[in-house]
Amino acid sequence: MNMDQALQTFYAESRELLEDMEASLLRVREETEPAETINAIFRAAHTIKGSAGLFGLDDVVAFTHVVESVLDEVREGRLAVDEPMVALLLACGDHIGALVDAVESDADQVDPALLQRGEPLLARLRAHLVPASGAVVAAAASEPSFERIGGATDDADLWHISLRFGRDVLRNGMDPLSFIRYLDTLGEVVGIVTLADALPPAAEMDPESCYLGFEIAFKSQADKAAIEAVFDFVLDDCTLRIVPPHSRIGDYIDLVRALPEESARLGEMLVRCGTVTAHELQAALEVQAQASPAPLIGAVLVEQGRVSPPVVEAALEKQKKVKDAKSQENQSIRVDADKLDQLINLVGELIIASAGANLVARRTLNSELQECHSVLSGLVEQVRDSALQLRMVKIGATFSRFQRVVHDVSRELGKDIALVVDGEDTELDKTVVEKIGDPLTHLVRNAIDHGIDAPELRAARGKPARGTVSLNAFHDSGSIVIEVSDDGGGLDREKILAKGIERGLVEAGRALTDAEIYALIFEPGFSTAEKVTNLSGRGVGMDVVKRNIVALRGSVAIASVPGEGTTVTVRLPLTLAIINGFQIGVGKAVFVVPLDMVDECIEFTAEPGHDYTDLRGEVLPFIRLRELFDIDGPVGVRPNIVVVKHAGQKFGLVVDTLLGEAQTVIKPLSKMFGQVRGISGSSILGCGDVALILDVPALMQSAGAPTPALPTV
Length: 713
What we know:
five-stranded mixed β-sheet, alpha+beta, 22 helices, flat
């Protein structure tokens, strides 16, 4: 394994662990049985510290070690997980993330100012550890100890670690000695014996292979899981056996039997490293000569009365779940995002080339060639779907970050607010996920600041003291819909309208719908806040939110009920790369409509001069694309209406010809054409011509109200 690659893996996994740690901290106080969550938080910090130690990242190790010590006190029940503790640990997680970012930029030198910012956190952490240290000693003194070999009860009883590294550990980029050095962070290596029995003759030795084994006497207050976790990165490349202090004679017998070296010599090693005395070794050898095969450990524990059968069954069940989970984890691999993007681009070019081959096959009238292309086209479509699926990610990871936003902002504002998340398993393109994070963050902060009322006002209105901000995601008509809701006081329609008139955005006396009035919020510089705060009041943000969402070919709308709350609905395409499209022709121009938005196609019928028709008893407004885009050329003999739907509403597009379905590779428009209304992108046809992709949400607004003439296409 290349060391640079290993470091990149460490950076990525550390950030994932910090995200998991943050999510666990935000929910731990809500759980009735938080033990497992606390253990997960501890394991995250422990893994980051251990991994950083392997790469010699001392600054990360030093800070995380203190965090881990406090978490260990929490895990043992000696410290309470209250709000101040959660806030402290969240701040520590942020600092660890900053340290990881710093060493990624420059592993040799971390900015002293960054280290200095961690000192107040370390002081607060150590304040929790001062009284805890005495508690540890007291707890250790009060715990009953089991009899050790030979009847000794010396306080220096030791763990014994028997370690045999695999042949490939060096090739995999791991330094065996670094693991042994790291043990000192958990306790003290009292004695160590290096075994070279596996070394072959010099002529047969491979310098890249590891042949060493170690017998280690280790003094520590850590538990077996913590000691074993030191070797997490090489568990698959080594043989590890750990015998705890105060172990029974049978445990040492089993150890001696299991190891590949001679029993007598191994016994000498145990004495030399200080784990057992010569007297204890003699007792072990005498019992070994008469010992029968040891029973299963679960049965032994039950027989000794140390655990009950249900406990053993529960432990086995949990072990099975962990094993299944690890097996599932092994089925996934990490892939560089740039490689996925390159794959999508190549699939897009493949689709264009396939469309060109289809045109050639139809022109030649060769049935065999057409049949072969039909098979090829089906395979290309499957490759496209599989490639796009690789980039689809669940939006739950984006939603989870808002737990921290709600926690921090509500504390700053003195409000009690809960975040309710639904639809976190909804999938969409990773590119969309990356670009929607900031707009959603602003919407959530606005819901907390503007939407949720102060606790005393909520009480006066008969509402629970705790406010609720909700995030919901679901699929609808080929799009993903994200709703940001709050149960606050709702929007003040008249206040927004008055502000719009004052700023000249609305003519006085003009009748507007609620949706049109609420849409004023997205105008640049618009704000109804009476005072400026750290979060809002400057009229900056909501216009940027809308601009970013529109840039993703999406739309945003607001609905509000006075006294009940507000819901902001964001509608986005599932992918920004390749879609199933429906091609239509107007004159010589070809347009593409996303197939998921096409409801049906009907023959054109309408009264002269009317922009609507009768669709089975319903009024259907329509747009004449020829007039909208001022297209010249011959008029179709039999015009058609393509009925499209968006956000639960329908309207029609009057076209000359229906060209049918086709896979469409989305190509972005240049900045010169970025402001052309009604067009969201372009695509290349099989013949090499350019087809424009229609922006259905923008056209829907045109269908409902007169619009000025658009630039000629």
